[in-house]
Sequence to fold (454 residues):
Amino acid sequence: MVKLKTVYVCQQCAAEFPRWSGQCPSCSQWNTLVESVIEKERVGTKAGLAKETQALTEVRTESYPRILTTCQEFNVPLGGGIVPGSVVLLGGDPGIGKSTLMLSILDSLPQGTLSLYCSGEESLSQIKMRADRMGVKGQGIRLVSATDVADIISTLDEVNPAVAIIDSIQTLSDADLTGVPGSVGQVRECASRLITYAKKHHIAIFLIGHVTKEGVVAGPKTLEHMVDTVLYLEGDLVYHYRLLRATKNRFGGLSEIGVFEMTDRGLQEVKNVSNLFLTDQKEHTSGSALTVTIEGTRALMIELQALTVETGFGYPKRTASGFPLTRLQLLIAVLTRRCGARLMEHDVYANVVGGYRVQETGTDLAMCLAVASSLRDTVLPATSVAIGEVSLSGAIRPVSLLENRVKEAIKLGMKTVLVPQGQYDTIKRYQNSIDIRPASTLQEALRSLVSVEG
Fold:
């Protein structure tokens, strides 16, 4: 006998409640409870069957070569290519270029590789128009417009592609469930069926997902736990570049990034990434300092800018774009207390060129130099780079992957690099290629390039 039951399911955390409320008692989110009808069949208690176990040393592994695309910036976040049988979740803001990226990736697969693009949001003619604009050749790419997960699985059986794109997971539905497409139950069940199919038939499936206003993939958080890899396509719509970042990867390292540039022919990979975040060196002025930051294991050279202006109010203003504001305030305090800089009388504005967002502390020293340079109106050498974390005591602390940073500076033709004293021995072999100046304190580093006394 089947019994119908109505429950209210939170679209954020998938918690179920017998009655509606404005705020979810589990995750404290507002207006996320949606009424759902579930069916419960009364059955007797059934004992489970014991499964056969196997010793870890006796388990045989199956090795499948990765599928390498011609787009190296896409291979890197995946850990070196597409793994057959893997399921990848790709998230990003509306209009950021998710569908455009995946269509170009299908075109970059090795010759003879069959792929399937399944769209629940666009018609086939719309996809073809976009492909023509991007110059996609389309050899080996099959298109289908479907939203029923059973139909999609049947299509996968018939086509048997090596790579499949589902655009998007929030548009799919399972006829056996009563929820609307995009609800927690539908997203979870459709994803589960596609994941099971991918593992069984060794097909790589990419699930494109919508994101919420908080920037996370819409639907239950369990969706990110179910898939093998989670990628986010990030970037400001004002700027032309996009960062493809891996936040979960069972087959590679975390926080690896790929860099793309939005053009009239879609997203194109960027060969020389550091050039995106540097201005013309001929326009080098005071308040500008170069540093090398780390994204995953990749070194990126960026330019930090600072502007100090005498404040017209009793309380000086601090504003930052692309640089953590709390970190800027901390560095200003260190400059004031440890170096005697009169920053309490000045407003300080900080910026990262190109719209890049700094997420690590290895750029502290460069920001301090930029602020000091602006304060004294002194131009720093255009071929100098500063790397190091600044502590509250004014000491310059070690940073991660310093050797990678120094190599990037050498590759881009830099002549001088300031580094933490404690890490000098690890990179001194590069002294013939670049002038390495170790510093143990912020005062010592400032004396090396600029004076802020008085």
